[in-house]
User: Fold these one by one.
Assistant:
Number 1:
Amino acid sequence: MKLVDPPGKAKGKSSAKTEITASPGQSLPQTGRQEIIKKCPINPNLVHYEKAYQTFDWDQARGEVDWFAGGKINAAYNAVDRHMSDGRRNKVALYAIDSRNKLSKLTFQDVYEQSNKLGNALKKLGVEKGDRVFVFLPRVPELYVTTVAIAKIGAIAGPLFSAFGPDALRDRLQDSEATVIITNPELKPKLDSIRKELPDLAYVIVVGGDESKLGEREYSYEALVNAESDKLECERMDPEDPLYLLYTSGTTGKPKGVVHVHNDIIGHHMTTRWVLDLQEDDIYWCTADPGWVTGTVYGIFGPWSNGISVVSYEGRFDADSWYNVIDKLKVTVWYTAPTALRMLMKAGDEAVYRHSLASLRHVLSVGEPLNPEVVRWGMKVYGLPIHDNWWQTETGMQLVANLPCMPVKPGSMGRPLPGVYAAVVNDDGEELPAGELGRLVVKPGWPSMLRSIWRNKEKFDEYFRIPGWYFSGDNAWKDEEGYFWFVGRADDVINTAGHRVGPFEVESALVEHEAVAEAGVIGKPDKERGEIIKAFIVLANGVTASDELIESIREHTKRQLAAHAYPREIEIKDSLPKTRSGKIMRRLLKAWELGLPTGDTSSLEED
């Protein structure tokens, strides 16, 4: 990057997450698993699943997106620019409701022009192809525009969840060597507190606020954009050139940067059509923040590639507020998270019946297992089944789904999409028959598969440790009809309210508190959030336990990481179980907490 100066988010109780400790290959009970709901949207985009699964090849989908000469492509061109000539120029691309409940609308023409202006501004700042430009904004229109603009000029977009604290922010910006970040005055103090630790960060662009309060190499978004032309030719990218970089948590070390490429747009486009079933007149609301992969793929690129009107809502979660959004904008397709649905269920049937919701025709869920009880509740109050599906940050698109054209089995993630071969295998990569628990794997080759882990080939290779399979890290089984059923993570990653949280991150933040000497973190089953984070800590010498201290530790972790990543339960211990090499044995902590068998303890430090 060249450094230059510019010119001027029925009452009832849902069941807790099931913990199954069977070994791969062990048969699972089949009772209570075959409930079927057959209602589906009228005239879905994909009508005949079996035929499509047998005949579809990803090469067939290449014609669904636009290409430049020489086999070049740009995902942002497909999401926005091509609609300038296909009759959608004046169609609303984004219905944005801000934190004060004020509605604004951007047409595809608006997004086209605004992203062109920002793209030009970034280029004048010296941003080049391959540079990392991160976006740290709440769900405001500029978040969507900037993501498109970054992709247009061939830079790599790095969406960041607006609730991230300084530690989470620093880890991602340091690892990626980001050169530019776009934020706002409310979030900027988090960045300011770590700015000296970010030598590669050349510019900060601030959306809104007082321009006179900006420091050196800090610029007003509005001033930059207003000074630029609305004409910009998209960079013609190789399909394998990076498009966006998202960080995902693991059991050890800092979050790892998952790299996705412009070729992903093929998978985004087709799965949006098949799974979300989006059609020309739909008003579509994906409640996920673009700081997470669902919000990036199915909140921006997938729906916009199909020319669909998208809804964004900046306000906080509240049952009546969410239902008001659906009624106010006549939302037809709604994609949300199981935790949100469980909270809506907890709010009661009455909250539903205070609203019409007559516009809804298709409801989907993703991010964590969806309880069968919630699916049944959805049928009761919405008159629609909730279609669960499965994918990951690493997969870049939906891979297994309850498609609109197929019966829904409550509790199942569905069947593999056309062009996707998923299986359940043992630890040696050998496929297991129906009804046996094993590792959920996918045969590589789908268009949106991760291409690398940012500067970490060793981590990338772990996903493909047995040739011919992508190992998801999830345990599952499939039934005789090919429906897959999630059982649990094969590692220690915690899935709380749909957010993957690495225990190492939380442990690191905990021990930064002056009162904490050691920390071990586990995921504990929770009826509402799937899992909550529970921490076991050893206090530093001379520190006395108190309720005030526990709250101080909890708040410290929340500030350093994010609101979803703090331990809701903290237990003080005299010592933590460790291996002889000093590694905390989270497996034992979890077994003790849940009353499960402890298994082999021969490596315990005390033995």
Note: The longest strand covers residues 516-526.
Number 2:
Amino acid sequence: MQTLLRHVPLVETLRTYTGATFKGDLAAGLTTAIMLVPQAMAYAMLAGLDPIIGLYASIVPLIAYAAFGTSRQLAVGPVAMVSLLVASSVGAVAQGGTSEYLAHAVMLAAMVGALQLGMGVARLGFLVDFLSHPVVAGFTSAAALIIGLSQLEHLLGVHIPRSHYVHEVVIQAAALVGAWHWPTVGIGVATVVALTLMKELTPEVPRFLVVVAASTAVVWGFGLDADGVKIVGEVPAGLPTPSLPTFDLEAFKALLPMAITISLVGFMESISVAKRFARAHRYEIDANQELKGLGMANLMGSLFSAYPTTGGFSRTAVNAQAGAQTGVAAIITAVAVAVTLLFLTPLFTFLPKAVLAAIIMTAVFGLIDHEEARHLWAVSKPDLTMMAITFVATLVLGIEQGILIGVVASLAWFVKRASTPHIAVLGRMPGMEIYRNLERNPDARPIPGVLLLRVDAPLFYANVGLFKSTLESLEEEHEGIQHVVLDARAIGDVDASAMSTLEEIIDDHGGRGIQLWIAGMHGPVKDALTRAQLVERLGEEHFVYRVHHAVEAIGPRLKVHDQLEGGAA
């Protein structure tokens, strides 16, 4: 049973499932399904596939992820970014609209699934650790703007050329003000107002379902589609039949780089969205299990003519706001899509696209994390910079490039911080065996002839040069230094470059008659220095447990022991 729980998280969810939870999942699942049907069709066309393939990709992958994934709100399915990547890669090896094109797209889904599942089994989910919270906040805030403003054309009833640049979308929308379709604008604005008011006044009401039903009835009743209001129109019927993906070696070689790209980009986009909602709902995401969940979603989907899928940003926002509590909401969405394909397609014919646009916009704009920006301004300017870099890069270059740049910027900042560790000069607190940073503790007193130094980081190739130069500067600044005591409690590791530099320091100090003492060094670090013969070179007696032990050994030699006991400097 424990193995089953570990590999199929849905089992544990069902063990504690309640009727109240089902109520939220039911509303969320149905709402997301209403949004997913036309959205999946559009994304499939964006990928160069028949619209029905988008619906196929909205059934089995959702059920598979619900069983194997760990996010309770993540809505898996077709997404715009992956659809574009599919079109660019499959379009290079097959003619659009052909059976060969579809076969290659389905094979690509199987390749992506196998890669993601393999990464999960190999426990490569640690890659998500490079997604710091400021990076996730910057990415989600920018993605919310991109996705929200991409719906302007549906909200205004005019065609706005697609662009990665948000300002271009806004400028073009403003330039076309004379062509705005005002009945469409009215429906969209009314939907936004209704959703906002219902969220504040009647949060228990499934507001998305209400506005969808009401707007569909209005458009059908008044024949607004004949006046130019864009509607979803006829949804093709029929369920996918199971079949193995075809395998083409040449196509496999050509598609492999894109399969790797989609695997990584899809995972990072999905996990960043999943982490965002997991934090809001106070639970943890298992990155390795997420890889397995996404891998199974794509592998199982490829058996039912689906193309690659991943976690969708806008649908996840809608799913969460509509009340999703567990992965059961995704299963309800999948069942609703299947039932729709079989029996309910006429009900969506008169659904105005402006309503879908309003649902998306109100959902994602709430994810613009201005509160986090204010918090980081107060507590950490560097982290705020990381958030800003990710935000701007995502807006200017696109979602996948933006999050990648954010990760790279975070790593660069980590390297910078690691290469410039905090180094403190210590002094003794009067009448005590405690030594503190002289800059932060006015009562601490330096010891004549002794330089007490603390390094608050491991020593490795990137920072050992700074350590050595700082030591030399301090020795020049403090004349008459006869002993140097290094507080090594915070030095958790020493690499080969650092050991080589320590050897130089030991030899240099020995040649100048300055004795070096090392206090509080961790056992594994001392073992490494022993193997490098540095302990033998310095002398075992110069390795002590505490700084005070070194000072006690030094005191009589400097004839300041009585002064130290009295607390004088």
Note: The longest strand covers residues 423-428.
Number 3:
Amino acid sequence: MLRELSIANLALVERLRITFDHGLNILTGETGAGKSIIIDALGLALGGRFSSEMMRSDAETLFVEAVFELERPEVFRETLDELGIPLEEDGLVILSREVAQGGRSRCRINGQTVTVQLLARVGSLLLDIHGQNEHQSLLSSDKQLAILDAFGGEELSRAGSELATVYHRWKEIRESLARLDERIEERTRRLELLNFQLQEIREAKLKPGEDEALQQEREILAGAERLYAAAAEGYVRLYGGDEGGSILDQLATVQRALESATGIDPRLESIATMIREASYQAEEAAREIRSYRDSIAFDPERLETVERRLDDLAKLKMKYGESVDAILTYADGIDEELQEVGNREERREALQAELIGVQQRLAELAMQLSALRRAAGERLSEAIGEQLAELNMGRTTFKAALERVADSEGLPMDDGVFAVSAHGVDRLEFMVAPNVGEGLKPLMKIASGGELSRMMLAIKAILAEVDAIPTMVFDEIDTGIGGRTAQAVAEKLLLIAMARQVICVTHLPQIASLAHQHLFIEKTSDGERTHVEVRSLELGHRVDELARMLGGAEVTETTRQHAREMLSLAERLKLNRVGRRI
């Protein structure tokens, strides 16, 4: 369960810490008081999307932290271990996120830095947020199919995973065959181009690194005169100058002078040794310079040959690569492509043979998955019908209707060729008849906002029984409802809260009266800045808040008395219908 939520610099919140309890946690407050900020903070802590408008003005960073206490750590330990996340001995999982100006996030789980994707993955195991407009997603066929698959359990999940794997291979084979079956004219033109390019490269007789070696040789040939002059001058200065004028002669003179003086001061001996070694080095350098000077060749014809070769290489580089090595690599690629084209028929036959087997297996899995979904659909239809009856929609008939869409390019099966995806061949439509005597029609064509809200609540209640998510958040699930329906929704939320923690933002006093913990959100001002505060209401303040929700701006003794009666009825309901307090 979510034990604590800390927020800093989010919208109007400068710094806030909220403690949650077991059971049904209700958040109320005036319109615009900041209830949505709490939901936004939870979303960010669970890896949700950040926008710059969320940052409190003048703040450098935004920070949110959600502390979860796992009542059954063993359920999550294996998953967290696989993700490399340590689980504390006290069963705590702490998700935190710091967002700087510009949107850069730093996410942590139990102090360990993680990606925002991993934060979201772990968060999805701990808490499920049902936003104000999420019930609209119930109209999507893909969302409906995901709901059915989630309800179907582990067997359906395994079948779906295997089908997805086989489908992706089936799709890859078909795409490969399509590429092999390009138009003959295009393939012929491609072959002609490849053969021309390969012939041009081979006729050039390139060698790895040739361009770099030729460029260096060109520099030496073009600068031969300067190189000879430099070497000659160096040799003369070292060795070949006038008597006593070369560097070697001067070093010898210094050496003799120092050696003759060592008898007077032995300290000069080490210096004389250095001069003697320097003389040896200079003499060796003089020999090397002379040898280099004598090796320099003045060869204009060779220079012209090198220049022509470099020009030829430059033309090839413009077509095929930035260097000779890149051109050779390109040629290797041409070879491979030509071999692939040459083996086209052989590859096509192999792919066709594989396609037959994969396609047959995909059809088998699609049929198995459809059968599992039909069985799950019947159970789901019955379960939703029971839930809707408890939500004051007892006359409503609900059916999860599966169908297939014909597609000549799809998956061949025993009874036709159907469109297929990684989710199989099934298309799901939630069908509803709100009143007795009316025919079933697609949910999207007949459901009102209030009906959609109750549909989603019914589905959430059912899925809560098959998943392990310990905390569910409902943001204004009461959209478009009131009266007896509001009471039915309130009681349904209470029943869900007996099995897991529920956090609910509401405007309805019927729902608020059933809270195990009632949190009141309000805006305050110190004259300079506006702040959002959250406080847990005790009995007296709960009466005042329910009276406000019942009577609007004006709270009277009559509305207070009505509020007291609601709280008294709520306590009896918790004991009588639910059977225990939390």
Note: The first helix runs from residue 35 to 45.
Number 4:
Amino acid sequence: MTEIKWTDGAVEIFAFGRSVFRFDRQASPLSVGRGSATYKMKRGSFKFREKAFETVPLFFGAPKPEAGAVELADKGGNVLFLLKASVDGGLLRLRLEPLTQRKFNRLTFRLPAEADEHVYGSGETFTKFDLRGETARVWVAEHSSAARIAKKVLYEKVFGKKPKRVLKFSSYETYYAQPTFVSSRRYFVHIDSNAYMDFDFTRPDRHEIRARGFGEICLGFAEDFESLSRLLASLLGRQPRLPDWAYDGAILGIQGGTQAVLDKLEKAKSENMKVCGVWCQDWEGERITFVGKQLMWNWAWDRELYPNLDAVIPQLKGEGVRFLGYCNPFLAVEKELYKEASSKGYCVKNSKGEDYLVTTTTFPAAMVDLSNPEASEWIKRVIQVNMIDFGLGGWMADFGEYLPTDCVLHSGEPAEEIHNAWPAIWAKINREAVEERGKLGEVFFFTRAGHTQTVRYSTLMWTGDQQVDWSFAEAMPSVIPASLSLAMCGFGLAHSDVGGYATFAHIRREPEQLMRWAEMSVFSPLFRSHEGNRPGDNVQFDSTPEILRHYARMSRLHAALAPYLKEADRVNSETGVPVMRPLFFYYDEPRAYTEMYEYLLGRDILVAPVLEKGQTVKAVYLPADRWVHLWSGKVYGGGEHAVGAPLGKPPVFCRADSCYLEAFLKLSAIE
């Protein structure tokens, strides 16, 4: 299927009978160099300074077909590397083998591009989906710092307008960064390295990857996007299926203790809400700061805040409601788990040999040294004993993106070289905790930070801490490109906090915003809410009778979709084809390649959520097919249509040829 041909004049790559790339001898698709970088982190956000000492363009020399290689030489003809290639079906692997004693630590790789080409990926992107014309930074970090959001909101409040300076896409940071991109020409590129990288898609004639390290270059080719997803999954791995119970309605985000949980569940029952779980992030304790209600970060049951929880958890499970919690790889310095970890030398150190304390928002915390096998086993046992054995059905496995580059690790590895891999190591520990207890398929966890191996270890992503307003850059709209970009990187299971999380300055969650977000989350793999960092300042699912009725109906809709969602989940688990898919997956149309606020749920449902306040009619783009409006049964063809979108009936369509059509149309009768 894929073939590489070496000639005296060029190197050419063929896939499925067509020439995909051709590199002439005079061209320089690769450069190596030497350099150093400095990193400065504040609350998970990084500033960088790169210093280059040397850059050496490499040119193709003599081909060595018998070795599957070609020589790479500098301008003077000195052979510095062998470029080795191996082909397996649609996958091409390229590896540099040094033939020189000169030490290089920088790599630039260029691919020919076409003017009308589109590209997606580099991890999770919130403000862009098609990255053509942009440069994407591949370095895991805090996506939205509280300071930046608060500063922007304060400016708008004082001056009554948005700041003139708009943050460039290349300056944005993301929780989940992965050195993978997919082209509209039906190929992907993945770099097998943890190094910092820039993916530069700004030039009309080429794509350029600049890495602060070396790694195998993998290119995958397919005839369609489903096949391309399968090929990427064969390289990176797949997620397991979620537990069946996770599809039985809503998981309610509730804080405040045992009685608060039971009281809110009674309210939910009063409206016949389908509830499959309660997610109580403060199960291990709370702390109140100027940011709002935060957590204690001591991964053990807080008996004072949650009395009788050991009896309540099995009681709720008997009623079909799982209890979910929260943990992360930090430890609160005031509590017992930190004292134990510190006494055993299990925390990340600073240059003086002291525990390295990191401030994420308002308080310092220690980090478990995941490079230390003993420390990793210790935190895994904490998860197993204090969470799984205690009866939790799942948890948010937060953070992983905060490893500072100036810390000292037990393994002796430079922190710069392991920083990107840190969230994947954290996901691996959580996965092992579940598997070793024999609970995979019954218990799951969801992560927000990630890198390459996260695809293989995490059971579910959530899209992080969105604002509780209508912002396209930071709130509900941003989770759609985030989920789709994750899908293009091989992570096919993602969801968001219904209602968002972040409340700053004058931002408050409104009833309409919460209800619209709930509508969107019906048509996603998991339906889970969050009270936010200031629960008392924001409306909740039970704040008014109207919201409660709406939320209850949405929970019943999500539960009714369970057979379809489970099938899409199965496909993702077995093949790597994601649950949420971009429109161009099946429709080769110009608009489909740039659409970032509509998506396909599985193969047969098209979702165009209402993302603007007060909108009751929405312009919806439908690709060329026959589409049945979910609520009215009206049949539409391709093109743009003005569609009514009253509360409770967002623009959702199903393919007229779907075998699920009859079941879909029954959803309109659910009250």
Note: The first strand starts at residue 2 and ends at 6.
